[in-house]
Every structure is written in structure tokens, then in C-alpha cells.
TrEMBL record, chains A, B:
One of its GO terms (molecular function) is tRNA pseudouridine(38-40) synthase activity. This is tRNA pseudouridine synthase A. Residues 9-101, 143-245 form the Pseudouridine synthase I TruA alpha/beta domain. Keywords: Isomerase, tRNA processing. It comes from the Bacteria. Pfam families: PseudoU_synth_1. Belongs to the tRNA pseudouridine synthase TruA family. The active site is at D52. InterPro entries: PsdUridine_synth_cat_dom_sf, PsdUridine_synth_TruA, PsdUridine_synth_TruA_a/b_dom, PsdUridine_synth_TruA_C, TruA/RsuA/RluB/E/F_N. Formation of pseudouridine at positions 38, 39 and 40 in the anticodon stem and loop of transfer RNAs. Substrate binds at Y110. It comes from Mobilitalea sibirica. HAMAP family: TruA (MF_00171). The gene is truA. Homodimer.
Amino acid sequence: MRRIKLEVAYDGTNYCGWQLQSGHLTVEAVLNKALSELLKEEVAVIGASRTDSGVHAKGNVAVFDTNSLIPSEKISYAVNQRLPEDVKVQSSVEIPLEFHPRRVKSKKTYEYCILNRNILLPTERLYTTFIYNDLDVKAMQEAASYLVGEHDFKSFCSVKTQVTDTVRTIYSLEVSKKKDIITIRVTGNGFLYNMVRIIAGTLIEVGRGAYPPQKVKGMLEGCDRNLAGPTAPAKGLTLIKIEYDEENLLNNNYDIK
Amino acid sequence: MRRIKLEVAYDGTNYCGWQLQSGHLTVEAVLNKALSELLKEEVAVIGASRTDSGVHAKGNVAVFDTNSLIPSEKISYAVNQRLPEDVKVQSSVEIPLEFHPRRVKSKKTYEYCILNRNILLPTERLYTTFIYNDLDVKAMQEAASYLVGEHDFKSFCSVKTQVTDTVRTIYSLEVSKKKDIITIRVTGNGFLYNMVRIIAGTLIEVGRGAYPPQKVKGMLEGCDRNLAGPTAPAKGLTLIKIEYDEENLLNNNYDIK
């Protein structure tokens, strides 16, 4: 028995998110089916991030166990022959059997993209949120700076969460603009339910001038979802990568969060 | 009666090209319907470039005549309310009644995008062609340089064309790479049927090493479609802009091509 770690990229447009849901097309279901057919055994992947309906990924992580003798590096190429164009495995490597992609400490990076121009550009519509008000990027950058560090992000978490410890660390949160696209890039040790989309929604409100950048300090302190901005649409969000450092991977250093 | 010039952007993925075709969804049909409903009169646009099925546009041009009193600049905003997300009018201005978008001289710019990496990235698949062989960008740039200028592009034209004069001028043809995306950007005074896609297909073959860059000189001289490379897929192609200079527009300086 070997455990294989996959990096998985997908266009979330046509999927009801990552997680298996009876009667719905999900990335997990598509992966399980393709891997099971390829390896001729029942495969059930464990995903690192159960992305929401419509969210995209360039590097989500999933693991599964197999008795197959296919060299681990070849699995990505072989399974891609059986996957649709909107889900492709980027790499496959063997890892210790104890490795669990949600329990081992990691750094996750997401990007949230905003198309900021007068009129919607159709070829950008699937991977950005369209905002026609001219956003103040400097104000968004200032607001972002207050969110970096270890904080209780309760105000930036959907009330639907079942998590009770809402303290997380954001290592970096950058807002940049290139032509008509504003990109919010965030790296942290973990993200609460809808946290990146609520951060994006809040920064968009700051960019519009709905409230001053400093107001996000009070949002953090208040620990109340009603204080932060709206949840920005899913389609602007892409999970870029999940990094496990090798030491954690070998020592099986479980993250209590 | 006024003549209105529109700049039209669209995602060609779900369209059978620009031109009206009974029983098929086309950009022209969608525009005619939305404009007719908005202006409460029968509208029939005349397009500058009848892009093929699957080709995208950021700035195709179309004109139509109207008796409506809506200020010309407001038409774009108003018609966008009635257009789907994958077709949006970027601007609308009044122009002389004599202006015909295919007869007045213009400069057209297209981009052809190639995703050049080991494994397909789903979020890029709709607007690029995926090539997993590592392409030699320098060789592609050299090959491109031989195509710049006034030439008989018969070898770079679909045999299905009805055009007899196959001389065209390419003002610039640049190949650049940024991360995994190779962009071929070409500006000319007009393009033959499939010309940009055949240029792209030929440059891809050069990039693969199938033949040396110098070979495109012979392709031009031979005036035979069989000499040039294959027609690259439609989805990698985007019509970026069409520029009419004001002098031509006012003097109604008809292009004989």
C-alpha cells in the first residue's frame, strides 16, 4: 500500500465545489471515478481544501492510497487521460502513509481577482468579479495591512462554520493592479469558511470608499460577522498552492487547527 | 437616420462565429436581437470581421443604422442590459452614414495564445491552445520576422477562400513569453481566411523544431497552402482591436481589398 499526493488544478465553473454531494457534479467525484478506473480499485481521495461551488484551483492537494504498481510520478499523466479538460492533475508523488493533507501544517495561498473597468470583458468573466466603480487600490492596500498577522478572524468567517477556534495567521496579503485586473493575494496558515471571500468583499468596499481602511481594525476586534463586508462571489477566487514543509511532512507534525 | 459604430467584445466559446447562420447561435444574431428589442426597430449590424466559430474578440467592430433618439454613447450601456455575459458592447459612437467597417481601410490586431507547459491548466484552456512540447521562442521570433511587410500570403490562406488578391501587409508580428503563456501578436492591414491561425500553426511547428525559421521564406515564395503549417485551433485566437484613422473615416477612403 502506498499513499500518493496529487496537486489538482480545476476550473470550478461547472462544479458544485470539491466535496462529494449525492446528485451533484463535484471535483472529488470526478477524481475518484477517474482514479478508480485507472487503478482498477476503489479510490477515495482526501482533499486538503474543500473549495466551494464555483471556486477554482491551480494547486489543491489530495491524497489517496493504492495497491497499484504504477510509478507514482506516472499517475498524473495516466489519470489526466481520463479526466475532463476542466480538471487536471499537475503532479503525483508518493508520501508517508501517515500524511493527512488537512492535519499536517501547511501554508495556503489564494488569489482573488477583480475586473475593474467600465464594462464587463467577456473573456475575463469566469475568473474575476466585475466591479465597475473605480476602486482605490491604495486604500485597499492599507486595509489589507491591518489583517496581516495572527488575529481572531471571527468577523471574517461565515456564521455557518462549525469551527470554534477562529484564530488564524495571515503571512502576507497583497493587493496589486495590472491593467484592469486587481489581484488580492493572500497566504496564511489556514482559512476559515468563506474567509478569503469575506476579506475580498471587505477590501472591495474599502476600495469603493464605503468605509475608511482603518475600519477593518475594528472589524477584527469586534469578532462579529456583521461588522465585515459582504462575501465576494466564488468565481473570483482561485486556490493557488498549498505548501507543506518537508520537516512537517516527515515528522507528521499535526496542526491542532 | 444615424449610423452607430460599436466595439464588441465576446467569448467565442459558445458561438458558431460572428456571422448569421440559420439554426445556429452567432454573435451577430445575438446583437441584432438585443439592439432590435432596445431600439424597437429592426436592426441588422454589419460586422468588420466575421470571426470563425470559437474565436474571441475584445474589440470587433460593427455598425448599424437607427432612427432612435437614444444618445449614441448610451447605446452600449443600454444594450448590455439585454446581452448575455459572453457578449458585451464596449463603446458606441455615431459615425458618418457612408462608413462601412469592411470597406474603409483599417489596421487589425489579433493575439494568438499558447499555453506551453507540461500539463494543461484548466483555467487557461478556453483562451489558449495547449502545447506540451517546450517551444523555442527565439526560433519562433526569427520565423515571425520574415512574415513582416507586404507579401503574397497565399500559402497562409485557407483554400476555401473566395478572395483572389492575396497580398497583405503585416506591420508587426511579435512573439513573447510570460510564464507559461506564449503570445503571438500581429497587426496588419487585413487578414485572409484563417491567416492568423495558419501563421500561429506554422510558428508552433518552428517552435517545436519541425523545420528551421528560414523555411517560412520559402513558404511565402511558394504561394501554396500545402507549404505552410497547420491551422491552429480557433480558441487560442482573440481579435484585439480594429483601428480606422479619422482621415480615412471622413474621406471615405475605400480600401480596394
